[in-house]
Amino acid sequence: MTSENDARPPTDKEPAEPRAVRVALLDPVVVIAIMILAGTFALIGAAMLGKDSGVLARMADSRFARGLITYLFAVVTIGTAVVLVVSALTSPATKEEKERFERGREVLSLLLGVFGTIVGFYFGSELGSPTAPATSTLQLTSPLLLSSAELAPGQKTTITAHVSGGTPPYQFGTSLEKDAPLEYSSAVAADGWIAVEIAAPASPGVKSFLVTLGVRDAAGQSTAQSREVRVSP
Fold it and tell me: What is the set of domains in the chain, with CATH numbers?
């Protein structure tokens, strides 16, 4: 035997609960919350996959974080002001709309107070932060022989050069072979002058040799100058 309730066909009023859920999901507050959560999870996923261009990693940099927070507050504040203006110009002049506009104006006033504080702190910090001095280019003069331009086999002489720019202190190295690596193992004097003794090759048949002088500063910049020295027979 079937009861009267079992035999009664479903009516249009029964699926009211799913419809209420759909209406609740279309609420602006719910939509905004879903967008914020979706954006947060998207940023975290992009960071895990290495496709966020290092945004989360750069948040440890105070200057980058201040700029990003200032930008976000500027977008939110200006967007809220635009929404209020459009709402005031397009909505009917009813008591309900007026109350809604007043609530939105209070939110905008709060955002303007916070935004003004953030902007003042940001620009004050930028103007008060010391700027790093620009590093000049490391320069080295061409090696100069203190004796004649021609040396006898095995003869010793002193070459001089001057280094400037870059970041002191400096280290220098010399080489008497073409394309030989330089070892920056000697310290440059405080006035920037370099004086190093070299000797011409004693092997017979050598008509000239190449003197290379290289300098490296504390910042890692390096430069080198070369000079060909003739050997007399």
Answer: 15-128 (no CATH), 139-231 (2.60.40.2410)
